[in-house]
Predict the structure.
Amino acid sequence: DSGVTQTPKHLITATGQRVTLRCSPRSGDLSVYWYQQSLDQGLQFLIHYYNGEERAKGNILERFSAQQFPDLHSELNLSSLELGDSALYFCASSVGRQTTDTQYFGPGTRLTVL
Amino acid sequence: AQSVTQPDIHITVSEGASLELRCNYSYGATPYLFWYVQSPGQGLQLLLKYFSGDTLVQGIKGFEAEFKRSQSSFNLRKPSVHWSDAAEYFCAVVAPQAGNNRKLIWGLGTSLAVNP
């Protein structure tokens, strides 16, 4: 158990819908990262927040947005969902602001878009 | 283009045999190098990382990796594989650039199966 929690574990929804994935980092960690893992593209970095502020952005679609709240939990919002958005979404946390800090991964949220 | 490559999609070894998983990177300078493991149905766990110094790095679960600058490689090894090592292994890098917007770039992974 990494100490990072993600909810829900599974999510099934329809095209065009909007969903919110939630991540609670390990106690004391200030950074949260979001990743997408799909069969065709592998693991892709989406976005990194440190202490509430966006620090780095990767291949995140405009239909996707994220934020980190004052209690340090983070939410990833996916809207206008398409079939291709079906994937496993991981969040990870680390203590500092550097991407090279050890990242601890949650168990992931499996999103299925029908 | 800058990238990280894991040439082997799938590897099968017998329990007790040695293991080497390959990772090659394509960057002008040495990036920060990582190996992660993803067990079935679970998140990823860091096995080891290399930033600088001794080119042989020891990690958790009996794994080690060797950085070879001349070959742009960071191969993962284990002298004797256990059935519980069956998992997906990912090599990842962070580009050696200063400033913000740094990110982990991932290889496509190597799936390891262990025969009893």
